[in-house]
Structures are given as C-alpha cells and as structure tokens.
C-alpha cells in the first residue's frame, strides 16, 4: 500500500497530496498518470496525472478536485493513511523539445497536469507563456509555481475577481496574433475549454496538444472505455495518449461519452456527501 506523506488544500475541493511510490517516482515523465483505487474489492479506479515527483523522497504528487465519490473519499483521507492500489506511470510521456515559444493553457484543475509539462518545456530552452483560467480568484491554483518558471503569466477569471475577466481563449487568440506567433500550444482543462482552445489556434496553424481525461478502467487498452476518435481513427487514451493533436480530436463525441454515467455519478457523490456529513456530526457530538 502507498502511504500519504503530505496533504494540503489548495482551494475549495482541490487538494495536493504527496504519496509514497518510489518506483513510480523514479520512472515517471511529464504527461504520464497513475490509476489509483481506494478499496481493492469495490473501489472505482480513477486516473490522476502525476503533478510532480521526488525520487529522493520516493514520492509522487497528485493534485485533484473532489467532485465524484472516489475523489471525495480521497479528499477525506489524511497523512498516514494508505491507498490500496496505485499503478503507474501510465500513458505516453509528453514530447519535450526546444520548439521556440510554448504557450501552456490550463483551465481549473487542468493547471496541475500542466506543471510538469511546463517545467520540461522550460528546461528544454523554450520561452514559456502560461495562461491560467478559473471561475474565481479562490480557484486559481499553482500561480506561484508557474510564475517561478514562466516568462509570462496571464490569469483569467470568469467573474473578474482576479487577473483578466473572461475566457482563456481571448489571450490565447492575442498570442496567436503576435509576430512571431507561438510555436506550440498545450491546453489542459475541461473538454469544452480544450475544444475551443484548439478551435482558436487552428486558423493560425499553431500546433496544439491536448491531454484527455476520459472514462478509464484498466489503463492498459483492454476495456475500451477511454476510446476517442482522433483524425477519424479510434484511439485509446490510456495507451495512445493521454496527449493528442487537439485539431484532430472529436471533442463532441468525447463530451457525449463522458456523460454516459452522469446520473450514477451524481447519486454516488450525493451518498458520499451524506456519509461525510453524518461522520462529521458524530464527531461533533
């Protein structure tokens, strides 16, 4: 089992954890992920991107948002608790090279998986521009870490409570109109955000990489739950990705598939919330 070594809350419902996983810490590369399971008998298998790693400590860092049953349960765990199953590193690593100017666009929790990619791109000698998007100021994460490595940081919030008001596609379009334009864009966040980032860069012929987080079970390409259509061909996110050419991804199909179990997910999350409230009430009494 893998012990939780550190835990902190970055924003409402967003947590950062360092977990003991020495072999994964040694092997992981930017863009790769793990699949964890809290209960070996009935637990859901959930994919989470590795946000950072410390081979000396033998740990990996995971940043996640507690939105469904499994992530809510994970968010309730404390330092010293152990995760039953943790498998990785999985997926194809990000292609890191010296491209020139790289724009990384992160929406919400998508900023977390962008961090190791941004680190890698900067180390490779690229000029790095970071665009961070969130609904409100309180939901902006990893700003300090990104400012430490990026040449330019642009922050957007939906309500205008911090940075610029509006969507990340607005500054992305402005960057594409610069001379010279970016040599590469990397976008990670909600599917709709990635879709419109790709639509924004396409007219300017700026190569755009997106990282997909689809329904996933085994992480080996066997179950087919993570399949997507890229360039008219079926691909499996767990083994062919998670990163793909954003201009080739059928986002509409992917978004439709992601909603396949929405009602079941809502019921499971609601049950977990009620259980958590009951436990909290019992502790107070």
How would you sum up this structure, described in words?
The longest helix has 23 residues, at 262-284. The protein has helices at 22-27, 69-76, 111-123, 143-149, 169-176, 191-201, 237-240, 251-258, 262-284; strands at 2-11, 14-20, 33-37, 45-54, 59-65, 82-83, 85-90, 101-107, 127-134, 152-157, 164-165, 184-188, 208-211, 227-230, 233-236, 243-245. It is globular, with a radius of gyration of 19 Å. The chain is α/β, with parallel strands linked by helices and 285 residues long. The mean pLDDT is 89. A seven-stranded antiparallel sheet has the order 6-1-2-5-4-3-7. α2 runs parallel beside α9 (262-284) and α5 packs parallel to α6 (191-201). It is built from nine helices and 16 strands.
Give the secondary structure arrangement, pairings included:
Layout: E1 2-11, E2 14-20, H1 22-27, E3 33-37, E4 45-54, E5 59-65, H2 69-76, E6 82-83, E7 85-90, E8 101-107, H3 111-123, E9 127-134, H4 143-149, E10 152-157, E11 164-165, H5 169-176, E12 184-188, H6 191-201, E13 208-211, E14 227-230, E15 233-236, H7 237-240, E16 243-245, H8 251-258, H9 262-284
Parallel strand pairs: 8-9, 8-12, 9-10, 10-11, 12-13
Antiparallel strand pairs: 1-2, 1-6, 2-5, 3-4, 3-7, 4-5, 13-16, 14-15
Helix pairs in contact: 2-9, 5-6
Task: Give the structure's gist in a few sentences.
By secondary structure, the protein is of the alpha/beta class. The protein is built from nine helices and 16 strands. It folds into two domains: 2-90, Elongation Factor Tu (Ef-tu), domain 3 (Beta Barrel), CATH 2.40.30; 101-258, Rossmann fold, CATH 3.40.50.
């Amino acid at each position: 089992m893998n012990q939780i070594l550190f835990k902190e809350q970055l924003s409402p419902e967003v947590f950062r954890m360092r977990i003991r996983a020495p072999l994964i810490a040694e092997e992981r590369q930017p863009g790769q992920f793990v699949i964890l399971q809290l209960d070996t008998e009935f637990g859901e298998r959930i994919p989470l991107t590795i946000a950072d790693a410390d081979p000396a400590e033998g740990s990996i860092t995971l940043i996640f948002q507690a939105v469904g049953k499994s992530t809510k349960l994970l968010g309730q765990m404390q330092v010293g608790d152990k995760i039953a199953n943790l498998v990785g590193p999985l997926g194809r690593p990000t292609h890191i090279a010296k491209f020139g100017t790289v724009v990384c666009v992160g929406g919400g929790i998508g900023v977390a998986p962008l961090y190791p990619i941004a680190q890698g791109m900067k180390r490779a000698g690229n000029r790095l521009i970071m665009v961070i998007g969130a609904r409100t100021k309180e939901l902006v994460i990893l700003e300090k870490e990104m400012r430490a490595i990026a040449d330019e940081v642009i922050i957007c919030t939906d309500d205008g409570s911090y940075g610029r008001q509006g969507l990340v596609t607005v500054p992305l379009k402005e960057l594409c109109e610069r001379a010279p334009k970016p040599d590469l864009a990397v976008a990670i966040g909600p599917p709709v955000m990635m879709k419109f980032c790709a639509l924004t860069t396409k007219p300017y012929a700026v190569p755009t990489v997106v990282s997909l987080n689809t329904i996933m079970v085994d992480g080996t390409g066997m179950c087919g739950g993570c399949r997507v259509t890229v360039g008219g061909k079926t691909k499996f996110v767990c083994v062919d990705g998670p990163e793909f050419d954003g201009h080739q991804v059928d986002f509409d199909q992917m978004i439709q598939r992601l909603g396949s179990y929405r009602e079941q997910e809502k019921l499971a999350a609601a049950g977990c919330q009620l259980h958590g409230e009951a436990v909290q009430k019992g502790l107070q009494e």
